[in-house]
Design brief:
By secondary structure, this protein is of the alpha/beta class. The protein is built from eight helices and nine strands. It has a single domain, classed as 3-Layer(aba) Sandwich (UDP-N-acetylmuramoyl-L-alanine:D-glutamate ligase), CATH 3.40.1190. Strand 4, helix 3 and strand 5 form a beta-alpha-beta unit. Helix 2 packs parallel to helix 3. The chain starts with 5 loop residues before the first strand and ends in a 25-residue tail after the last helix. The relative contact order is 0.15. The protein binds adenosine-5'-triphosphate (ATP) and magnesium ion.
């Protein structure tokens, strides 16, 4: 088969392969599209935790985005963790240069254990500037709480926070419900015209490393193929749900999900 579309991923590398750039490339590939990357940081981690993070020079991040996109034009862009205000400013500059409309921002700020990954200056810049420049943002519950200064305990609170983000200038918002404890996971989609709550089965598993990266990239991929934004969210959630259900149970800590769950390989090589 030929790739259905082309995606540029701006994110960090996860040496364990479950999240970050590695999860993003696997997602794009298993959904049948072509992945390109601009790496923002290199992390040394495994399923038990992060050992170190080495940041890439912001100018080099801009170069990766512009040089790659001017040759092979992406149909859509997914943005993951941007760790400082300098990086955010360079990414904004690069995006203004290449003029791609379908951009999904996963505003990564808090690690699984609750540690803040980016400083307040960067958070304020995301809130005041970046969220207006993209088509959709996909915060998880702690990130939505930080961005809106609210406390989220249920779907109603998620809808309130999402509407606040629309007031700040976001076009579309998907607040991910993985962090609540209800029997069903609820992901809340809001824009100026509509509100949709997606319900899916919650799995009891420690293997949920990279669900957030994977979801935003799956949505970007469906969007890049021409699906409408709400439909792309529905399909992305389905993809993550099946990947969680069939996780391979690797590693001693929070293991990866199964990005290959959608693939049927018919060809063998001899
Ligand atoms: N235990 C679970 N069972 C089913 N779906 C889940 C579960 N945990 C998360 N999800 C789904 O995974 C997607 C990502 O949500 P989540 O809230 O985990 O994002 P995140 O916190 O950004 O993830 P990450 O920790 O990878 O950054 C959502 O669609 C959510 O509903
Ligand atoms: Mg996340």
């Amino acid at each position: 088969m030929k790739p259905k579309s082309k995606i540029l991923i701006i994110a960090g590398s996860d040496s364990s392969g479950g999240a970050g750039i590695q999860a993003d490339i696997k997602t794009v590939t298993s959904l049948g599209s072509y992945a390109m990357t601009a790496i923002t940081a290199v992390t040394t981690q495994n399923t038990t935790g992060v050992k170190s993070i080495v940041a890439i020079n912001p100018k080099e991040i801009l170069n990766q985005i512009v040089f790659t996109s001017k040759d092979i034009k992406p149909d859509a862009i997914k943005i993951g963790m941007l760790h400082s205000s300098k990086v955010i400013n360079y990414v904004i500059k690069a995006l203004e240069d290449i003029k791609i409309k379908k951009i999904i921002l996963d505003p990564v700020m808090v690690a699984k254990g609750g540690t803040k990954l980016i400083n307040n200056k960067a958070i304020n810049l995301l809130k005041s500037n970046m969220i207006k420049k993209v088509l959709m943002i996909t915060p998880n519950i702690p990130e939505a709480e930080i961005l809106t200064n609210t406390k989220i305990e249920n779907a109603e609170d998620m809808i309130y926070a999402a509407n606040q983000l629309i007031k700040y200038g976001a076009k579309n918002v998907l607040i991910k419900g993985g962090h609540l404890k209800d029997k069903f996971v609820q992901d809340v989609f809001v824009n100026k015209k509509e509100i949709k709550v997606f319900h899916s089965k919650r799995y009891k598993t420690k293997n949920s490393h990279g669900t957030g990266c994977t979801l935003s990239t799956a949505i970007t991929t469906f969007l890049s193929c021409g699906k409408p934004i709400k439909k792309s969210c529905e399909l992305g959630i389905k993809y993550v749900n099946l990947a969680l259900k069939s996780n391979p149970n690797y590693g001693k800590g929070h293991g990866p999900i199964n990005h290959l769950n959608s693939i049927k390989i018919n060809k063998t090589f001899k």
